[in-house]
Structures are given as structure tokens and as C-alpha cells.
């Protein structure tokens, strides 16, 4: 299987093609079979490939299948590679993706365009697998653009609704801005190293001297450009704006793309290029600061949102910020670990939210929910598990990964304490808004019309994936126990060949470090507890208190509710000037006046000349006779008085 | 032996008369005749040069011109008859229907 690694991405592509081309006439049953089996088989193939990879004991499996582009000494091939980092990504993408496919078969039952939906979903899987399996930046970029395309198609799935179509466009355009930087980064890397293959670039870059902090050498600029692409794809400041709007798509899409897989592409690229990044402290610092700022910024917006999916969207942005924070301080293992656990619990949160929305008849506003806990127990239980996981309570998955990141931030040399403090505060906020979501949705009195809305639990095709993901959310963190458990950190050892075994912080000795980690973990749990307690106090014991608080802090509250007016700022300073420029300069001046004017002007000129000259065609026989004679006289005159010219003319005729 | 000059001058005079009539006459048949006159003026020049240069090319050319002129006369007269039938006139000034 390992030799035939290309089968893994090909299967979803086949499923997409079959469903897209033939599915329109098919009953839903066949569409389900195609979609589920193609992704399921891809998952199994990936598992088999991973098993063979470990059996063979290679550090890096690399295979060139065919040359895609060759020009001079540049070669971009369809080359796939498999190493430990890829293994994590491939299994998350295919595994979680498969569960979401199963869930979607139930969720989308009542929707039109069933075949279209699954065709797009499979297409997305294909591109994501290309992205993570690619062995050079060019092929990675194919997947990178492809997931952008699929995301555009899926966000705008309900394209008759204007808001959905707009959200799709927004996602696409914002992503393009990031991609622009990514491409420039690729060009720069090619210029510096003459190749785009990961193995060759990293081998060469490893020998380069590190850029000093504040020095803008080739590597620093390349890293910053790559990171610009990552901010677009992974929804970081300042390009995060598309992700919350992307909630216009169907909920399984939010779960698959905007939580579990696509948005992690940026983190993956940074982790994949870790050799470049570690050579550039400046770029690392930028990554860490942007990540930390995004984590905090998005969490504050998440505090007051009332749309259940929007809260989760901002929480995703915030958690992605954690991952970048981890990468920025050099704790790539922790970042990837958080990526994995986040994929589990965030996919679960979205799917459970979808189940809630499904149960209550399409309502997404949490102010119109409440008291659902008793009616949809399975959804409640699984969503609670995910919430506890993301809030960071032991022994759930989120605790271990977030703790690892915070610990690494605390230890980091550059600005570590500030990053740690902000990260810790964000953890508190996270616990608050997640429990706020739980309390508003599942506790208290029903705020919907109980006579009209018939609350019903979802079918098992939807609950099954929820339960599996809930189990993963619980145990997913146990692969990387903190050192004070006196157990090997399986995950760090596992990723060791990729990132190099992290130098354990030696200062102060093992025991002191363990003690420090234990203390920090305790602090993190206390922070999460405070978040939970505040949420409980505001939304369960004193439900009116929340409104009073909102009233007493009206300016802050409205600012948060309006998401810091970022969309409005973008509209005023980016969108409207661009629109003005496009309308008045590019459209009306350049296109209409310039290009159309030239083309039409030539046509009008020809018509005007014709209009003048046609009067010589009088229709009068004698005037024609005069022209003939005049012409003959002219020819004769030339022959007589200008013999050389006439000879040249005759010579040309001969 | 008449000098070649004389023939050529006569030919030029005949051709000039033909051109003059071609331009200033209105009757179609007269115009037609002036064309014939011009053709024959050219024929005269051809024959004269042929005689002067002692080559037969000019005479052969004249035969071709006569043949073409005969064909042209047949077609041209046919057209003139149709014009006369349709327009009840032979005045070219009044045959200008193609004018815009």
C-alpha cells in the first residue's frame, strides 16, 4: 500500500467524480454508498500505508510518481511523502472526515442537492490529502488552492441565499490575499534554493546561518510570506474575517472544513517548514505574537455572540491561535498535538451543534433555546464532553494539549511570560464562553415556543459519529502526558524524527521542571474553573445578571457584539476604496473608455471615412468615365516624368 | 513609305476624339461607338509599330483586340437594348438607379 500511496487521495476524487457526474439521477442511497465507501476506503488505505511505513522503519517515505512540470532545472513532480507529521494529518483528515461524512448522510437528508454536497465534500478530502501528502511546495499549493475552492463551493452551498453566496465569496477572496503571500514565499524559496522539494530545501536551509533577530534575510522574508498564506487559510489576524461568516454553509461543512481540517493547513505548513522558521527568530516571534493575539482577540468576541455556530467559529479562530503560538515558540509538537485534539473536540462540537439545530428545527440563536438537556440527552452528553475537553479540564484531551502549549510558552525565552499570561487568560475566557453556550442551550427554561417546535433526538447515523468523537475527545490527550506523570510522552517521541527530539529544559533539573509543570497545569485548571464558575453564576444561578452586566458595560458589550467592528473597518478602508477604484478607474476609465473606446473608435473611424468616400460612387456613368481617364493620365504622367519610380513599380510587378 | 510618326499621331488624335466623346456624350450608343474608336486607334498604333519594327507581335495583338471588341459589341449592345426597353431612354444621365 505504501508504494501506492496515490490511491489514498485518488479514492475521494473518484467518489467526487462519480457522485458529481452521475449522482443527479441517483436515489440518495447510492450517493451515500459512494461517498461513505470512498472516504472509508481512503481511511483504511491510509491506515494500511501507515502500518507499512512503521514496519519498514523508514524515517521518511518519499516517492516520485510522475513529473508534473519541468522547465530548465526546475522540476515539480507529483511526489508524495509520508513521515510522522503527515501520518498525524492524514489520519485526522481521513478519520475525522469519514465520521463527518457519515454524520452528513443523516444531517443532509432533508436538503436538496444531496449529490452535489457529497461531491464537493469528497473533492475537499481529495485536495486536503494532496496538501498533506505533497512532497514539494508546488504540489502542496495545488491542495492549498483546492481546499480554498471546495470551501468556497461548500460555504455557498445554499447559493440562493445571498448571505451564503457572499460568505463564499468573502472566504475565497480573503484566502486569495493570503495565497498571494504564499506564492511570493514559494518564489523566494525557489530563488534561494533552486528547488521546491521539501527534502532538498530543508537540507540546504539547515546549513544556512540563522538570521539574527530583527534581521530581514531571505529566510525571514520567505517565512513571513509563507505565514501570510497561513494566516489566510488558518484564519489568523488580520485575515480571520472569513471564518465566522463561513458558518453560512451546512453544519457538517463547518465541522469538516472550518474546525477539523482545512483551517489546520496553515499550522501544518508552518510545522512542515519548521526548519526554515527555526532559522528566523523574527518570523517565529511574529508567528507567536499573531497566534497569541488572535487567540485572545477571537475569544473576547466569542464571549457575547448568540449564534451557536458563531461562538464555535470564534472559538476555532482562538484555538488556531494557540496552535500558532505553540509553533511560534518552537513547540511544534505541542502545536500539532493541539491540532489533533482540537480536530476531535471541535468537530464534535460542530456536529453536536448541528444536532441541536436539527433537533430544534433550524434555529441557531441560543436566546431561543434553553432546557434542551433533558430532551436530547445523547447530544447533550457528547457536547458536554467536547466542552470539558476544550475548556481544559483533566483528563480530557484539551487539557493536555493546551497545557503543553502554555508550559512551552512559559519556558520560552522571548516574551514568554506575556504570551503565557495572555494564553492563560484566553483559557479562562474559553471555559467561560463554552460553558455559556452549554448553559444557554441545554439548561434553564425553554425559550422557544414549545407548542410549535417538536424537539427530537437525531438519528443514529448522526449520533454514532458524535459518540466516537466524544470518546476520542476524552482519550485523545493521553498520547502525550505531561512529564510529571512519569510516563513517556508518546506523541513527542512519535514526532521526534520530524521535529528533532526537543531539548528538555535542563535548567533547574528534572524535578524542578516537573514541579513547575504541575503548578502551571494546576493554574490552568483553576483558570478554567473560574471560567466555568462565572458562566454558571451568570447563566444558571442568576440568569438576569448577564443582561444587567451587559447593560452596565454597554460600550464594551456592543463593541464585542459587533466583533470590534472589524468587518466595518475592512469595508471602509479596504473594500470600498477598492470598489471605487475598480468602478471608476478600472471599469469606467480603463475598460469602457480605454479598451472599448479604442475598439469602437476604430470602427467609427472606418464608418466615417466610408461615409465621406462613398460620394465618389455617384452612380453616374460619365463621372466614372472621367475617373478612368484621370487615372490613366496619372499613370502616364508618372511613367513620363518619374521614370525611376515607374520602373521600380513595374519591377515589383514582375 | 509613310513615316511611322504620322500613323502614331493619327492614332493619338483618334484616341483623343474617342476619349472626348466618351466623356461628353450622353447617348449610350455614341459612348459605345467612342469606345470602339479608341480600340481602333490603339489597333492602328499596334500595326504601325509592327510595321516599323518588322515584328508580327503587334499584328497578332490587333487580331485579339478585334475579337474582344466584337464580343464586347455583342454584350454591350445587348445591355443597351435592355436599358432602352426598361428605361425608355438612351441617356446615361438617367441610368443611375444604383446610386445611393
Identify low-pLDDT runs of chain A.
502-508
Task: Give the strand content of chain B.
Answer: under 5%
The total beta strand count of chain B reads 0
Look at the structure and give the CATH class of chain B.
Mainly Alpha
Q: What is the typical, i.e. mean, pLDDT of chain B?
A: 90
Could you give the distance between the termini of chain A? Answer: 75 Å
Q: Quote the CATH topology of chain B.
A: Helix Hairpins
Shape of chain B: elongated
Strand segment count of chain A:
2
What report would you give on this structure?
The complex is a heterodimer of chains A (654) and B (100). Chain A has 654 residues and is mostly helical. Chain A folds into two domains: 7-561, no CATH class; 567-608 and 630-653, no CATH class. In chain A, 73% of the residues lie in helices and 3% in strands. Chain A is built from 26 helices and two strands. Chain A has helices spanning 7-22, 28-56, 84-107, 114-133, 137-155, 162-193, 198-207, 218-233, 242-245, 251-260, 265-272, 274-278, 281-302, 308-328, 332-359, 377-391, 397-411, 416-442, 460-475, 490-499, 509-541, 543-552, 554-561, 566-613, 621-641, 643-653, and strands spanning 61-71, 74-82. In chain A, β1 and β2 (74-82) form a beta hairpin. The longest helix of chain A is centred in the C-terminal third of the chain and has 48 residues, at 566-613. Chain A is globular. Chain B has 100 residues and is mainly alpha-helical. Chain B has one domain (4-88): Helix Hairpins (Orthogonal Bundle), CATH 1.10.287. Helices cover 78% and strands 0% of the residues of chain B. Chain B has three helices and no strands. In chain B, α1 (4-24) runs antiparallel to α2 and α2 (28-53) runs antiparallel to α3. The longest helix of chain B is centred in the last third of the chain and has 31 residues, at 57-87. The N and C termini of chain B lie far apart (56 Å).
Amino acid at each position: 500500500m505504501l508504494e501506492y500511496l496515490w490511491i489514498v487521495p485518488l479514492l475521494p476524487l473518484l467518489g467526487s467524480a462519480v457522485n458529481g457526474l452521475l449522482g443527479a439521477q441517483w436515489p440518495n442511497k447510492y450517493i451515500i454508498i459512494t461517498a461513505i465507501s470512498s472516504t472509508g476506503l481512503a481511511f483504511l488505505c491510509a491506515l494500511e500505508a501507515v502500518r507499512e511505513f512503521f514496519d519498514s522503519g523508514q524515517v521518511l517515505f518519499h516517492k516520485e510518481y510522475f513529473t508534473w512540470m519541468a522547465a530548465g532545472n526546475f522540476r515539480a513532480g507529483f511526489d508524495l511523502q509520508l513521515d510522522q507529521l503527515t501520518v498525524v494529518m492524514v489520519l485526522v483528515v481521513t478519520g475525522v472526515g469519514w465520521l463527518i461524512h457519515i454524520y452528513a448522510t443523516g444531517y443532509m437528508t432533508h436538503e436538496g442537492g444531496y449529490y452535489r454536497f457529497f461531491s464537493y465534500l469528497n473533492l475537499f478530502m481529495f485536495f486536503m490529502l494532496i496538501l498533506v501528502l505533497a512532497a514539494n511546495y508546488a504540489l502542496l499549493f495545488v491542495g492549498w488552492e483546492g481546499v480554498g475552492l471546495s470551501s468556497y463551493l461548500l460555504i455557498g452551498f445554499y447559493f440562493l441565499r445571498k448571505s451564503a453566496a457572499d460568505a463564499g465569496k468573502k472566504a475565497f477572496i480573503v484566502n486569495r490575499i493570503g495565497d498571494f503571500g504564499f506564492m511570493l514565499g514559494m518564489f523566494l524559496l525557489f530563488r534561494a534554493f533552486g528547488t521546491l522539494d521539501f527534502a532538498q530545501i530543508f537540507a540546504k536551509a539547515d546549513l544556512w546561518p540563522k538570521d539574527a533577530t530583527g534581521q530581514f534575510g531571505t529566510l525571514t522574508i520567505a517565512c513571513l510570506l509563507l505565514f501570510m498564506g497561513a494566516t489566510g487559510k488558518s484564519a489568523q489576524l488580520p485575515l480571520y474575517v472569513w471564518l465566522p461568516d463561513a458558518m453560512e454553509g451546512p453544519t457538517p461543512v463547518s465541522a469538516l472544513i472550518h474546525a477539523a481540517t482545512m483551517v489546520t493547513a496553515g499550522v501544518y505548513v508552518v510545522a512542515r517548514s519548521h526548519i526554515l522558521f527555526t532559522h528566523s527568530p523574527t518570523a517565529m516571534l511574529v508567528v507567536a505574537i499573531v497566534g497569541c493575539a488572535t487567540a485572545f482577540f477571537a475569544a473576547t468576541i466569542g464571549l457575547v455572540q448568540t449564534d451557536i455556530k458563531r461562538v464555535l467559529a470564534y472559538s476555532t479562530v482562538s484555538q488556531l491561535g494557540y496552535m500558532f503560538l505553540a509553533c511560534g515558540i518552537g513547540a511544534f509538537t505541542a502545536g500539532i498535538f493541539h491540532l489533533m485534539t482540537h480536530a476531535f473536540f471541535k468537530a464534535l462540537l460542530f456536529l453536536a451543534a448541528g444536532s441541536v439545530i436539527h433537533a430544534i428545527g433550524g434555529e441557531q440563536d441560543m436566546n431561543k433555546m434553553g432546557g434542551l438537556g433533558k430532551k436530547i440527552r445523547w447530544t447533550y452528553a457528547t457536547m458536554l464532553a467536547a466542552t470539558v475537553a476544550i475548556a481544559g479540564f483533566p483528563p480530557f484531551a484539551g487539557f493536555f494539549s493546551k497545557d503543553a502549549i502554555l508550559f512551552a510558552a512559559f519556558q520560552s525565552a522571548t516574551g514568554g511570560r506575556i504570551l503565557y499570561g495572555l494564553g492563560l487568560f484566553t483559557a479562562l475566557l474559553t471555559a467561560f464562553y463554552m460553558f455559556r453556550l452549554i448553559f444557554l442551550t441545554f439548561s434553564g427554561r425553554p425559550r422557544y415556543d414549545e407548542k410549535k417546535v417538536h424537539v427530537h433526538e437525531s438519528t443514529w447515523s448522526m449520533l454514532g459519529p458524535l459518540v466516537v468523537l466524544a470518546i476520542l475527545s476524552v482519550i485523545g490527550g493521553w498520547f502525550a502526558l505531561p512529564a510529571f506523570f512519569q510516563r513517556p510522552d508518546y506523541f513527542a517521541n512519535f514526532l521526534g524524527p520530524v521535529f528533532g527530539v526537543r531539548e528538555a529544559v535542563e535548567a533547574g533539573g528534572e524535578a524542578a521542571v516537573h514541579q513547575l509543570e504541575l503548578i502551571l497545569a494546576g493554574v490552568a485548571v483553576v483558570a478554567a474553573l473560574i471560567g466555568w464558575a462565572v458562566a454558571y453564576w451568570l447563566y444558571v444561578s442568576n440568569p438576569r445578571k448577564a443582561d444587567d452586566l451587559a447593560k452596565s458595560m454597554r460600550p464594551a458589550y456592543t463593541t464585542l457584539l459587533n466583533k470590534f467592528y472589524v468587518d466595518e473597518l475592512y469595508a471602509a478602508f479596504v473594500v470600498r476604496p477598492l470598489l471605487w477604484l475598480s468602478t471608476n478607474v478600472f471599469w469606467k476609465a480603463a475598460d469602457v473608455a480605454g479598451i472599448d473606446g479604442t475598439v469602437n473608435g476604430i470602427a467609427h473611424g472606418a464608418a466615417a471615412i466610408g461615409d465621406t468616400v462613398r460620394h465618389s460612387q455617384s452612380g453616374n456613368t460619365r463621372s466614372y468615365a472621367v475617373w478612368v481617364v484621370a487615372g490613366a493620365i496619372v499613370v502616364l504622367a508618372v511613367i513620363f516624368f518619374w521614370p525611376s519610380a515607374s520602373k521600380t513599380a513595374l519591377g515589383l510587378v514582375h | 513609305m509613310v513615316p511611322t510618326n504620322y500613323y502614331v499621331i493619327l492614332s493619338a488624335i483618334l484616341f483623343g476624339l474617342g476619349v472626348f466623346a466618351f466623356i461628353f456624350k450622353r447617348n449610350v450608343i455614341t459612348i459605345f461607338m467612342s469606345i470602339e474608336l479608341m480600340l481602333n486607334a490603339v489597333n492602328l498604333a499596334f500595326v504601325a509599330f509592327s510595321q516599323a519594327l518588322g515584328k508580327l507581335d503587334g499584328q497578332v495583338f490587333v487580331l485579339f483586340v478585334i475579337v474582344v471588341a466584337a464580343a464586347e459589341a455583342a454584350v454591350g449592345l445587348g445591355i443597351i437594348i435592355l436599358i432602352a426597353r426598361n428605361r425608355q431612354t438612351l441617356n446615361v444621365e438617367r441610368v443611375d438607379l444604383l446610386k445611393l
